[in-house]
Design goal:
This protein is an all-alpha fold. 86% of the residues lie in helices and 0% in strands.
Length: 142
């Protein structure tokens, strides 16, 4: 579940980054490509440039709207978004209790592993001492 949440958060960050990049690019394109609009001009070239500019601006706006909708969808899909603050606090408290329980289990497991490690070290030490004790070696050969 945590992996799924992180994937969604990553997707959300990517979409926000994409939106910021698109908006920056759009502003630059609009500034660069905006045709001069002389007052009362009926020149076909000016009208065509204005219409092309309007069409490009419309396409860019649609792209921004789509990315914004994607962001809203990702936000809505995050768990807990529909919960009230007290419900979120309750869930956090339950998770904290679970975390403490798992921490105690981990500490118990670690203590048990350390006990086993000490027993293995003691056994190795005993074997090493017996192997180097001349009395042990004589009794092993007889």
């Amino acid at each position: 579940s945590l992996g799924l949440i992180m994937d969604r958060v990553t997707q959300l960050q990517e979409q926000v980054d994409r939106l910021a990049e698109m908006m920056s690019t759009c502003v630059g394109v609009l500034q660069r490509d905006a045709p001069p609009l002389p007052l009362g001009s009926a020149d076909p070239a000016v009208i065509q440039a204005r219409d092309a500019f309007a069409q490009n601006a419309h396409v860019m706006a649609l792209d921004i709207v789509q990315v914004s909708k994607n962001i809203e969808m990702l936000i809505d899909s995050l768990p807990g978004v529909s919960r009230t603050v007290p419900q979120q606090v309750e869930q956090l408290e339950a998770l904290e209790k679970e975390n403490q329980l798992e921490g105690k289990r981990l500490e118990h497991g670690l203590a048990e592993a350390e006990m086993w490690l000490q027993q293995v070290r003691d056994a190795i030490r005993t074997v090493a001492q017996d192997a180097t004790d001349p009395a042990f070696r004589r009794s092993a050969h007889t």
